[in-house]
């Protein structure tokens, strides 16, 4: 459902790029990169020989932020700074929670899994902000980026990543089946507590 909604929103842009809410939003970049990002988990699952049931829950958590971002642009909600901050927080919470479900299938321990998710989320969010900066500095994209807004984005992204790490530690790690078998090795390598 999230992929269908994302496809519809991107098709809206491709059909009507002249709509005022798309002006200065680098929607052409989103139309190019979002389908590729949404295809990562399905392609990995196929490439690895379709191991076990498809990991619908973590995959959906990774795709939802893309859909929410496209919907926010289509509805012109980013004119409200608070919406951008809320979306950064929610998106990173969803992304890191989804990643956490995959990480929980590895025998890394609860604390290490949470730290890995927090660090990965922080890096991903920083890379996104750098892409926005590069678009303005090098490609001349007319994004309305201010220092206070960017710092708010970083704070919201870090907060969301922290929440995702807590979800990993408290909810996902004791339930490795949620991440499916795409990256799993917990069955072959039991928890430290089980070996004692």
Give the topology.
Blueprint: H1 2-15, H2 27-38, H3 40-47, H4 56-74, H5 81-103, H6 110-137, H7 147-172, H8 192-195
**Overall pLDDT, averaged?**
87
SS summary, helix count:
8
Order of helices and strands: HHHHHHHH
Low-confidence parts: 188-196
Q: C-alpha Rg, in Å?
A: 18 Å
What's the total number of strands? Answer: 0
Polypeptide structure, described:
The structure is a single chain. With 196 residues, the protein is an all-alpha fold. It is 68% helix and 0% strand. Helix 4 packs antiparallel against helix 5 (81-103) and helix 5 (81-103) packs across helix 6. The termini are far apart.
In short:
It contains eight helices and no strands.
List keywords for this structure.
0% strand; 196 residues; 8 helices; 68% helix; single chain; disordered C terminus; mainly alpha
């Amino acid at each position: 459902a999230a992929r269908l909604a994302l496809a519809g929103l991107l098709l809206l842009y491709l059909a009507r790029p002249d709509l005022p809410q798309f002006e200065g939003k680098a929607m052409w970049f989103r139309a190019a990169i979002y389908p590729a990002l949404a295809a990562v988990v399905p392609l990995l699952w196929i490439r690895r020989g379709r191991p076990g049931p498809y990991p619908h829950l973590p995959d959906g958590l990774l795709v939802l932020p893309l859909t929410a971002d496209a919907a926010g642009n289509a509805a012109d909600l980013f004119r409200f700074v608070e919406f951008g901050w809320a979306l950064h927080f929610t998106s990173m919470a969803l992304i890191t929670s989804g990643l956490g479900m995959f990480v929980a299938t590895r025998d890394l321990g609860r604390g290490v899994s949470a730290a890995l998710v927090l660090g990965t989320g922080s890096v991903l969010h920083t890379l996104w902000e750098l892409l926005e900066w590069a678009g303005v500095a090098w490609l001349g994209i007319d994004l309305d980026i201010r220092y206070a807004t960017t710092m708010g984005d970083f704070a919201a992204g870090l907060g969301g990543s922290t929440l995702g790490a807590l979800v990993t530690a408290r909810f996902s790690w004791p339930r490795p089946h949620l991440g499916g078998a795409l990256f799993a090795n917990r069955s072959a390598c039991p928890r430290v507590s089980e070996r004692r």
